[in-house]
Every structure is written in C-alpha cells, then in structure tokens.
Specification:
- The protein folds into 2 domains: 1-53 and 263-293, no CATH class; 66-222 and 300-402, Rossmann fold, CATH 3.40.50.1820.
- It contains 13 helices and 14 strands.
- Strands 1-2-3-5-4-6-7-13-14 form a 9-stranded mixed beta sheet, sandwiched between helices.
- The chain is α/β, with parallel strands linked by helices and 404 residues long.
- It holds the Pfam family PHB_depo_C.
C-alpha cells in the first residue's frame, strides 16, 4: 500500500507539472515583453509547479571535459562491466600518461551515484576514474535474484578485478563498510587485484561513537519494525514488479524532515530568484534539487541487512563481520593503505565513526595509515564543495600517489 499510495501522489505531481508548463508557456510572451510584477510572480509560480514531485531517472553526470595540465581533454562515459544491479562506469580520457586507477564507491542511500559528480570531477585531472553506477532496484526484474550486503561486496570485488591490479578505492559515506569488507575478502584470499589504498570518507564504521540522530533512529526500533513499516513492493507498472524495496522517496522524505526549515527556505529563495530574474542563483538551487529529488530504490535485503549489521549490531565495529557465512578479519588487511576523512560538523556520520577503521586494521603499519578531519564542513562538505577541492582533495591525491 505504501508504494501504491505514492504512485497516486506521483500521478498528481505529473498533472501539476503539465499544468505548470501550460501556464508558463502562456505567460512567457508577457515576461519577454518586459512586464514585471505580478507577471513575473505568475511565471515563477509556474516554474515551481513544473518542478513538482520526484523522478526515478538517473540524471546525467554532465562531465564532458576536464583540464589535464595545460589542455582541455574530452571525457567519455564508458560502461566497463555490468550486472542487473550496477555498472562499473569509467570516465575515459584520451591521454598518453598513465594515471592511478580509482574506483569511486557511491552509496546506496536513496540517490543515484551522480550525487558524486563533483567528487568525480575533482579526481579526474589526476586519476583514471571509475564509479559504481548503481541501478534503481525498482527497475530490476525479480528474476535477477536478491541483492544483499554480501552481493554489494561481491560487486566491489568484481569491479576491482575488472579494473586490474594497482587500483585504489575512494568510498563515500555508507559503503565505507562494504569497502572495508571487500578489502578484507581480497586480502584473505590473496587476490592480486586487492586495492593499493582505500580512502573512507564520512562512513559509519563504528556508530557507537557520538551517535547522531540517524544512528539513534536505527536503534530505536527492532529490525522487524523497519521491515513492516518501511519496505514496500514495486507495483506492476515497473520492470521490477513484485520486488521488495526500501523506496527512495521514503529515504528522501526522512532527509528532508531532518532539515525541513532549510528546504522550505531553499524553495522560497528559488521562487524569489525566479521572480526577480536572478537566473544564476535560481539555476544553482534548481541544479541541487534536480539531483536531490532524483531517487533510487534499494533492494529490501540490502537495506535491512545494513541496518541490522552496521547500525544495530555494530558487527564491523566489533570485528565480527561475516561474508558468505565465513568470518572476516580486518586485521588481514596488510597491503591496502588506509586513509579516513571526516567533517567537523557532520550530523549524519559523527567525528570518530570513520576513524575507527584504524583501530580495526591493526595489520597495517603506521606509515600506511592517514586521517584528516576537515574543519568547518558537514556531511556533504567532506566530498564536495570548495573546502573539499582546496583542502581535502590535495591530501587524498597525495595519499593515493604515495601508494601507487
């Protein structure tokens, strides 16, 4: 019923967008003729109507070129390996110089991997960048099977094997846990494709440290409550009909509720920027919400297993994680250098939660470990924005280069 109710709402939003387009087209001749208020208010209102609702389609990465040295180099998206649940996507550059191969591991948290386009864009001049381009679970047929925690780890192992020896990992947010697991799996099996380094950014390695509201919510209810109240079945109109999912619209709604005033103010600002003809300011807000309101459903088993293992039982934090029924020991990681990055003002993954990875990876000598606490940034500022580009990224780049 949860998904069916949302579908009704989505259909109403589509009608609102259609009426917004009609109204906007009708008003356009008046705005082009130079009429001001209230015509510009009506035009801004129509634009707001055109933005009603969410989308389940991945936005484009929009990275067409990047400056490498003194020249602008074209960038081409190249699918390298794919499964029903995800694609290993390479941002290919036609350059002669060999650069360190970096796998950017994107979170499955209700948004598409395009949320990390800024991270990718920053990495591209100095690295051969790949990303885990996760698919929307509601578009994956039931016949493709399940996708749980171990399947996510499997994908990372397969992706790294496809990239070949000498690769590096940059895991952002939630997949810091799976990246550690994949590194341990590859270390224990002596897999030659094990990454030379992994950089874990704002990831929930040990949620017992300075619990945030997100962490407290996860332990406030038994796992059965999450399954009964937050898991839905994909309706028949979609390719994944019958698949059990944690809907992306539920996750986005939760994020919005955490900062409701900020989002209300953001849309109020957007309206007035549109009404006042402040195009650049309006476009910046629109671009943010184009991405924020593009949502991705998670396979139910992955969501429930992650909540149970990471946020309730602290399996990784206790070094009790298992993979395919066998124990995983983080102390087996001896050849993959470790860097952790945290944000001083992170209200999703608190300071100390990611750094806890160093206490688990005791098989690594001190010179193969590094930590950076970025002052003055929240969760998203750890991997995007001006401080990421100017202060955090140079450290990450040097860390990768020193272990290439």
């Amino acid at each position: 019923m949860l998904y069916d109710a949302f579908e009704v709402q989505a259909d109403l939003a589509e009608q609102t967008r259609a009426w917004g387009r009609i109204l906007h087209d009708a008003i356009s001749p008046w705005t082009h003729a130079g009429f001001r208020e209230p015509v510009t208010w009506w035009s801004a209102g129509a634009r707001m109507m055109m933005r009603a609702g969410l989308t389940f389609t991945r936005p484009p990465y929009g990275i067409d070129s990047v400056a490498v040295g003194n020249r602008e180099v074209p960038v081409t998206e190249e699918p390298v390996f794919a499964t029903p649940f995800g694609t290993l996507l390479r941002f290919r550059k036609d350059i002669a110089t060999e650069q360190p191969k970096v796998l950017v591991v994107a979170p499955m948290s209700g948004h598409f991997a395009t949320l990390l386009r800024g991270t990718v864009r920053t990495l591209l001049p100095d690295h051969d960048v790949y990303i885990t381009d996760w698919h929307n679970a509601r578009d994956v047929p039931v016949s493709a099977g399940r996708f749980g925690f171990d399947d996510y780890v499997d994908h990372l192992v397969q992706f790294l094997e496809t990239m070949g020896e000498g690769s590096h990992v940059v895991a952002v947010c939630q997949p810091a846990v799976q990246a550690l697991a994949a590194a341990a799996v590859m270390a224990q099996s002596r897999n030659p494709a094990a990454p030379r380094s992994m950089t874990l950014m704002a990831g929930p390695v040990d949620c017992r440290i300075s619990p945030t509201s997100v962490n407290e919510l996860a332990i406030s209810k038994p796992i059965e409550w999450f399954e009964e109240n937050l898991i839905a079945t994909v309706p028949r109109r979609h390719k994944g009909a019958g698949r059990r999912v944690y809907p992306g619209f539920v996750q986005v709604s939760a994020f919005i509720s955490m900062n409701a005033k900020r989002h209300v103010q953001g849309h109020a600002d957007l309206f007035w920027h549109l009404a006042n003809g402040e195009t650049d300011k309006a476009r910046a807000i629109e671009s943010f919400y184009d991405e924020y309101f593009a949502v991705l459903d998670l396979a139910a088993e992955f969501y429930l297993e992650t909540v149970k293992m990471v946020f309730q039982d602290y399996t990784l934090a206790k070094n009790e994680l298992t993979y395919r029924g066998s124990p995983l020991d983080m102390r087996a990681i001896r050849r993959t250098a470790l860097m952790t990055v945290e944000g001083e003002r992170d209200d999703i993954c608190a300071v100390g939660q990611t750094m806890a990875a160093h206490d688990l990876c005791t098989g690594l000598p001190p010179h193969m470990k590094s930590h950076h606490l970025q002052a003055g940034v929240g969760h998203y500022g750890v991997f995007s924005g001006r401080k990421w580009e100017a202060q955090t990224y140079p450290l990450v780049r040097n860390f990768i280069q020193s272990h290439s």
